[in-house]
Task: inverse folding
């Protein structure tokens, strides 16, 4: 493994209500337009339903509703198919903006931030000059 691979991580940057979030690219399988989904009775409001993507049934989670209490505009939204521990999940985001290479020393773990919020879905905050990216914890989203 090269030194570069150890000291930097590639991040997919996406937005929810103009807030920037980041996700390790190793967890992102693909990014698709908002597909038709099948509602599943009795699920949480943030779980929109399921899709059949090339023979794989994938649950769809509305991150905007989960984090901000607002439903996504499904017509304009994108879905990031993420995977962790062999579990796939589609997460609805407003837009996917860019891919960045971030030095790992620029990512501060949530327990070191000292902010009193429920941060189980966040693994850290990336500090990039004038920008802060909230880094998602895919393992917690996929439970």
Result:
């Amino acid at each position: 493994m090269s030194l570069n691979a150890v000291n930097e991580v590639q991040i997919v940057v996406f937005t929810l209500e103009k807030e920037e979030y980041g996700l390790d690219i190793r967890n992102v399988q693909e990014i698709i337009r908002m597909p038709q989904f099948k509602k599943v009775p009795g699920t949480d409001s943030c779980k929109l339903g399921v899709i059949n993507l090339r023979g794989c049934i994938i649950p769809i989670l509305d991150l905007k509703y989960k984090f901000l209490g607002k439903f996504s505009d499904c017509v304009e939204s994108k879905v990031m198919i993420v995977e962790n521990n062999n579990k796939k999940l589609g997460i609805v985001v407003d837009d996917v903006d860019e891919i960045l290479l971030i030095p790992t020393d620029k990512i501060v773990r949530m327990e070191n931030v000292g902010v009193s919020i429920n941060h189980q879905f966040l693994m850290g905050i990336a500090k990039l000059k004038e920008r802060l990216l909230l880094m998602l914890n895919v393992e917690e989203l996929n439970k």
